[in-house]
Automatic annotation (TrEMBL):
The keyword Nucleus applies. InterPro entries: AP2/ERF_dom, AP2/ERF_dom_sf, DNA-bd_dom_sf, ERF_plant. Residues 86-100, 144-153 have a biased composition (Basic and acidic residues). It is found in: Nucleus. This is AP2/ERF domain-containing protein. Coiled coil: none annotated. One of its GO terms (molecular function) is DNA binding. Residues 178-187 have a biased composition (Acidic residues). Residues 85-104, 135-187 are annotated as: Disordered. Transmembrane segments: none annotated. Residues 10-65 form the AP2/ERF domain. Pfam families: AP2. Residues 168-177 have a biased composition (Polar residues).
Length: 187
C-alpha cells in the first residue's frame, strides 16, 4: 500500500520529535515498527529505507529510490541515537521483528522450492474449496429466488404452509459469510 503523503520533514516514515531529533518508523502487516531516533532527518530516512528494503517495498515507497539494494541501503544508514534503555529495547525489538519476518519469508520460499508437490496439493485443495463454495452460493441463491417467486404469488401459491421449501428463505446468501469469488490463494 502506497504511503498517503510525506511528513512535514519531507521524508516518508520520519517525524520530528519534541527534543529536536528525528524518529523513524514503518508500518508492516498492520503493526508499527519503531526504527529509532536520529540526529538528522536524512539518517532517519535512510533507516526507513533499510526497513522498506527488508519488507520488500517498491522503490517508489522509499525516500532514496536511487539506492539499488538492501546492502547499499545498510551501508549508507547509521545507527539510531538511543537515549534510554527503553528506546534501546524498542529498537532491538523492532529489529527482531524485521529479522523474524525476513526469515519466515525465506523459509517459505525455500519450502516452496523443496516441496512443489505440497504446494500443488494445497493449491488444488483451495481451488476445489473455492469451486464448492461458489456452487453452494449459487444453489442458495436459486432456492431463495424460488421461494421469493412463490411468495410473490401469495394465495395462488402451490406450496403448503408446512412445506420445507419455505425454510430456504431463511438461508443466508450474504457475501460476508464466505470468501469472495475473486479471492486468490497464494502458496
Amino acid at each position: 500500500m502506497a504511503p498517503r503523503r510525506r511528513s512535514n520533514t519531507g521524508f516518508i516514515g520520519v517525524r520530528l520529535r519534541p527534543a529536536g531529533h528525528f524518529a523513524a518508523e514503518i508500518t508492516a502487516g498492520g503493526t508499527r515498527v519503531w526504527l529509532g531516533t536520529f540526529y538528522t532527518k536524512e539518517a532517519a530516512a535512510r533507516a526507513y529505507d533499510v526497513a522498506a528494503w527488508r519488507f520488500g517495498r517498491p522503490r517508489h515507497e522509499m525516500n532514496f529510490p536511487e539506492v539499488r539494494s538492501l546492502t547499499e541501503a545498510q551501508s549508507l544508514s547509521t545507527e539510531p541515537l538511543l537515549r534510554s534503555q527503553g528506546e534501546a529495547r524498542r529498537y532491538r525489538s523492532g529489529q527482531r521483528r524485521i529479522d523474524t519476518t525476513e526469515s519466515d519469508e525465506q523459509f517459505m520460499a525455500q519450502w516452496r522450492r523443496d516441496h512443489p508437490g505440497d504446494v500443488a496439493a494445497t493449491r488444488a485443495f483451495w481451488k476445489e474449496k473455492q469451486t464448492y463454495r461458489r456452487e453452494r452460493r449459487a444453489g442458495k441463491r436459486q432456492r431463495k429466488a424460488e421461494v421469493e417467486a412463490e411468495y410473490a404469488k401469495g394465495e395462488a401459491s402451490t406450496w403448503g404452509e408446512d412445506d420445507e421449501r419455505w425454510s430456504w428463505n431463511l438461508t443466508t446468501t450474504a457475501s460476508e459469510d464466505t470468501p469472495s469469488e475473486d479471492e486468490d490463494f497464494d502458496f
